[in-house]
Amino acid sequence: MMPRNLSNTLAIFFFLFVSIAAFCQKTTESIHLDIQQRTDEIFDSLVTLRRDFHMYPEVSGNEVKTSTKIAEYLTRLGLEVKTGIGGYGVVGILKGGKPGKKIAWRADIDAMPSTAPDMVEFKSKYEGVRHICGHDVHAAVALGIANVLVNHKENLAGTVYFVFQPSEENIKGALAMMDDGLFDIIEPEEMYAMHVTPFPAGTIAAKPEEMFSDYKRVDLFFEKTAHRDTLFKFAKQVILSLENVALDSKFWNMQNMGDPQIGIAGPKSIYKNYTTVDKNKFSIKETKEGIKISGYLSFSDKQQRDAAIPTLKSQIANSEHHKLLKAELVNVFPTLDNNERLVNEGLQQLSAVYGEERVLRLHGVVADGRSDDFAFFQPKVPSVYFFMGGSNYEKGIIAQTHSPNFNVDESCIKTGVNLFSSLIVERLNE
Hints:
It is a single chain. By secondary structure, the chain is an alpha/beta fold. The protein has 2 domains: about 20-210 and about 335-430, Zn peptidases (Aminopeptidase), CATH 3.40.630; about 215-330, Alpha-Beta Plaits. About 35% of the residues lie in helices and about 25% in strands. The chain has helices spanning about 5-55, 65-75, 135-150, 175-180, 180-185, 230-240, 300-315, 340-355, 410-430, and strands at about 80-85, 90-95, 100-110, 110-115, 130, 155-165, 190-200, 205, 215-220, 275, 285, 290-300, 325-330, 360, 385-390. The strands form 3 sheets. The chain has an 8-stranded mixed beta sheet with strand order 1-2-6-3-7-15-8-14, sandwiched between helices.
């Protein structure tokens, strides 16, 4: 039998433990409510800020005014601000009231050349330049997160770095910032980013590992031959044989990527375990090493990617064109590779606060060959890249990036500030 004094001590300890746990839960819940309230208060100002970015867009490497506005905003919030990193990159440093984890949030800020008519009343004032990839929204969301978290500075256990990256569209900005000492200035243990997508406004989504089936180039080097045309035709057929998606598949209708069942967020997604080949992009060239034949492929995952070269070598070795000197797979775009643990924990934490209907786990991989140079940061820091919905189908607003009629439902700014501010709080205060 347990001694009476020990029994009483354990009872008191258990009561205190339950009380502290309940207090901590209540405190965390109140922080998320405060985040939502603060976001409501600043929402109109963030919309104005986004529209200003939209009206004065600047292409990669020329983000002069954009970076100045960002630095001024962060300075007014009281953050430590670093400028001129990797061109027009800006970093804002928010130190919490308690020691703890260090987390970075990255937003890209450049616009794109475009002669298509603007879809909004607050049209671009720079001819031939538009924000048709949503980076104006990304910048506004990041500044909104900074604004919200400053209000909770004393309760934050750790440091938040806000990284505003230039030159994403030409895939130069991330590398330029790192070459210019970004990770000497900041020391994040985790890093996060997001991109507007055609998903419904109000939602975010992520998955472990690949998010995009980015392009890779395959280079096959053969010994020189007088039968170039025959060799070229053979090499093309061998590369094309890697494609494992039927020609009559619904896969090829890119609108199906948003289908709730077979799309990239659907439980029966058809956008996984695939290799595709760009059928219009083959080349042949004589080099010192021999005849080089190149093609372009997209892979949904590492397994598909790793199988490509061995499969090509095997097929060529078993043919009359066996004089293959070398076969290489070359990066055209960097491959996004989300950290599995951070994805699982982040989605679980956000679902608990905002509901599973708003926080989606992707089952498939985007199949249009694009990527994001956020991927260059990922080998340095465990990280997650999110999709954020920007469409409102009832209003005819479709946030299909890089399309002439790209537009966003600006309510997605509120979604981004709410959910990602809450994510950072959860990650810091674990």
